[in-house]
Amino acid sequence: MKILIKDVLLNQSETDILIKDNIFYRIGKSEEPVEADLIINGKDKAILPPFYNLHCHAGMNILRGYVEDLPLFEWLQRIWKREAELTAEDIYNGTRLAILEMIKSGTVFFADMYWFHHSILKAVEEMGIRANIGVCLMDNLGQETLDKNFAFLNEYAHYGNPLITFAPAPHAIYTCSGVLYKRAFECAERNSMFMQTHLSETVSEVEDCKKQHSNKTPVEYLRDLGVLSERTIAAHCVHFNVNDAEIFAECKSVAVHNPCSNMKLSSGIFNMPLMKEKHCKIALGTDGCSSNNNLSMTEEMKFACLLAKVGFQSADALKAEEVFEIATKAGAEYYGIKAGEIKEGMFADCILVDLNNEKMQPNGNVIYNMVYSADSSCIDTLICNGKVLMEHHKVRNEEEIIERAKYYAKH
Amino acid sequence: MKILIKDVLLNQSETDILIKDNIFYRIGKSEEPVEADLIINGKDKAILPPFYNLHCHAGMNILRGYVEDLPLFEWLQRIWKREAELTAEDIYNGTRLAILEMIKSGTVFFADMYWFHHSILKAVEEMGIRANIGVCLMDNLGQETLDKNFAFLNEYAHYGNPLITFAPAPHAIYTCSGVLYKRAFECAERNSMFMQTHLSETVSEVEDCKKQHSNKTPVEYLRDLGVLSERTIAAHCVHFNVNDAEIFAECKSVAVHNPCSNMKLSSGIFNMPLMKEKHCKIALGTDGCSSNNNLSMTEEMKFACLLAKVGFQSADALKAEEVFEIATKAGAEYYGIKAGEIKEGMFADCILVDLNNEKMQPNGNVIYNMVYSADSSCIDTLICNGKVLMEHHKVRNEEEIIERAKYYAKH
């Protein structure tokens, strides 16, 4: 299969891009005619790397707008009560809605952490995007379920679909024992997997940790458990002190910034200047729909920049080019995906952005406009691993996915 | 002219809405057949009030992405240098681009403050939306230009187009003398106009004011000049203390919150809990494109809520219903426009929202989804004063406006 994208804007100049199977095969105008199975007119479009959403609970999309604006504990009670009722079918429908939304806003990969991993797998395979499916682990699941989850992870360690990987995902230090963290990390090491977790999200998490674990911060506690390495991908990381940032940098662990969620839940402000200064690996995620309430990575980039600027009183606390790289190339790299850049030999993941959209005018700098102005209406085409998943802002099957999602408005 | 919107969702139930000329004439299903010049199918759409953007510099849309992420003073120098070159034609093109963007994201009114008011007026009239055109006043314009500006305001006080009003707009306390503020306020009173200004945007503005004016805050200083009343619409109002908020409430002056701008320029965090507690009049604005960089009021609502929640560590610091009212009904009311609610007898300003959009799923609560999830792709139709300005997300003439705007990418 060959796809030729003609006359598309790449780094400020027009070119042709030939995709062969799942690879960017040749970038540049050819003297001779090029044969292709599909030709895409790239005129008035810019080709950019798509987004890699490094923290999400996709199934929660069916809970969008379920309950809002209550004090945290009351809100959590309502969400947890509703979550406990959800079936495998619900998670399948929620994950499909989430993936539809991600495709429409330019995202090609998500790291998920939720329940019913078989439902999630089914949805991801049908929709054709990349995912790291984190199998959520908590002590209160009980030994039998935990054993089953680990058996699943071992079994699916070398799953046939190259777009999909799995990860043990110990939920957080306040729901998982040290023993469970160690078991999860060993499972990840043995199977060459990543390990997902939530970390240092709130002040109370840090304070409780210090009380329980000889004054150690959550980062120190996990480091001493031996579960911090480049396999470790931690969401939130809001309340890192200088020492925590240094540990993360040294261990090469990944800190996933979720600005909308941290703001909406009043968790605090991620210390972007500190994390940058210590050369930590920083990625970007939307978190689940209940604490966001959408999965738009363009919006998340803008929130990240503006939050850093106001939070640290500096106009260059996080720049457009920096956050764009964090949301694209960096996220792919941290998950070992050879994509996130439009370069010959890389996996053919890309978006085509509509340069005639009003939010892209004038278009002196496409990155500035993508970060600070764009929304989903600017994303015209999405290609994942050489497959066109959206053209003219239309995704196959979207009506059916929407119809199924509507049911949850009443339930 | 009669427009019938059939089977549209209003407050959770389906109904028909008849617009006669520029008024919501009847809301409810009719037993008898209804004649209309235009019938709009409202199936799978919700009707909502549109947005009233209370602070904007529309012409700056042609400067979108011109320069970013520099320290404030360096950035301002670059912007000011470019602004000084702009012609009447540039402002016309920029304002048309801004209005196109506003219509596409559901906005029906904007309060503008910029130069070349004839260009702005021409753009507003052609595009057919509502505006309050603030004529920017600063001491350094010189006496002759100021006299001309006041003459223009007196002449256009009773302009024939009911959608358009004008306002003297003294720029800020650090660019306008007390004498100029008084002259502007007297002009507003004499002509039954509003007066726009910037106020308490940065810490240094407040500190400098105290030094120069016997320790008075900017609010106290303006109050003592006698220029605070319900005619006074002040943008930013970031650094209000308790006394400032009480003065604003007592004077019934309007504080326009611009969260994106305040975050992007590191100005600070608007004290939403204080302003709510003191029952201040609060409205919402996007500010100009250089400090935002778009004019989306849905995005601005989300930023307002999330900034208040993280800034004041409270999940209910600003609720979805509250910010939606601030962005719609409140803004209209403060400018004396009998609109902003879908009610019989009100001016027929409304949007139809596409309930089949992925960001609106599931749609248990349309306000929650509009505030926390929606983007411009959710806005299908916009009606301003009984005229359809957008249907199926298409605006008349948009290609031509975009073509003209493209020029500025290179200049």
Topology:
The structure is a homodimer of 411-residue chains.
Chain A: E1 2-10, E2 13-20, E3 23-27, E4 38-41, E5 45-48, E6 51-56, H1 72-85, H2 88-104, E7 107-114, H3 117-127, E8 130-137, H4 143-155, E9 164-170, H5 178-190, E10 195-199, H6 203-212, H7 218-225, E11 232-236, H8 242-251, E12 254-257, H9 259-264, H10 272-277, E13 281-284, H11 297-311, H12 320-334, E14 350-354, H13 366-372, E15 379-384, E16 387-390, H14 398-406
Helix pairs in contact in A: 2-3, 2-14, 11-12, 12-13
* Most extensive interface, chain pair and sizes: A-B, 71 and 71 residues
The CATH topology of the largest domain in chain A comes to TIM Barrel
Work out the helix count of chain A: 14
Total beta strand runs of chain A: 16
Gross CATH architecture of the largest domain in chain A: Alpha-Beta Barrel
Shape of chain A: globular
Radius of gyration of chain A using CA atoms only: 21 Å
Helix content of chain A: 25-40%
Strand content of chain A: 15-25%
